[in-house]
Amino acid sequence: MIKRIKRFKKIRIHREGTDTLLYGFIVIAAIALLLWRLVDNKVPFWCFVVVMATVYGIIINFFRCPLRFFPEESTEKVVVAPADGRVVVIEEVEENEYFHDKRLMVSIFMSLFNVHANWFPVDGRVKFVQHKNGNFHKAWLPKASEENEHADVMITTPDGVDILCRQIAGAVARRIVTYAKEGEDCYIDEHLGFIKFGSRVDVYLPLGTEVCVKMGQATTGDQTIIAKLK
């Protein structure tokens, strides 16, 4: 059993957004100035500043990286949400790539306005990490789980249970970043990776796992318990 150390939550900007925010500011400022010149100064410049600041604020919101810590004292047999978003799938599926049997899949869809950092759903050791090229269907569609570009992280819990966490690209999301490394220990509270601009994360669990969320329920990464293992 791993004792949890509770700390205050902090908000910061994710490292994946550093370049985007820098170049984005330059581009947005240039567009605001250009539009102001084109309308022959008929509209006050502060109007352009407000509009562009709003757009920039949305981008900053996307790259938020809250420093979170699981609130319970123990993570034993607990599966937490790997991402902020909304539960779009809870069903039994035939997983033929790794397990070759039926698994319980819980999927979380992240909108443009969600934090896009991903957390490890369980404590354990990373068994392997694989990246698969594919299509870019809308992330909430059922076929996105298998056909879209995705990264698979297999985690073996301390009890020897294999849990598959799949980061899936969406229609707009074209870049998946995975920090998990094969053979490394991993823990809830640590970042598994990051996906840019609207995407989805699937978690494959053994049949008989107790599901603790409902369809359409909002989740908070590293905070919401989505399931409890046997």
How would you characterize this protein structure?
By secondary structure, the protein is an alpha+beta fold. The protein contains 3 helices and 14 strands. The strands form 3 sheets. An 8-stranded antiparallel β-sheet has the order 9-5-6-7-11-3-2-13. Strands 1-14-12 form a 3-stranded antiparallel β-sheet, with no helix packed on it. Strand 6 (150-156) and strand 7 (162-168) form a beta hairpin. Helix 1 (18-38) packs antiparallel against helix 2. The chain is elongated, with a radius of gyration of 20 Å. The two termini are 15 Å apart. The model is unreliable at 1-10 (pLDDT under 50).
What secondary-structure arrangement, pairings included, does this model have?
Blueprint: H1 18-38, H2 45-62, E1 78-80, E2 85-95, E3 101-110, E4 117-119, E5 124-132, H3 144-147, E6 150-156, E7 162-168, E8 176-178, E9 185-186, E10 191-195, E11 199-205, E12 210-211, E13 218-219, E14 225-228
Helix pairs in contact: 1-2
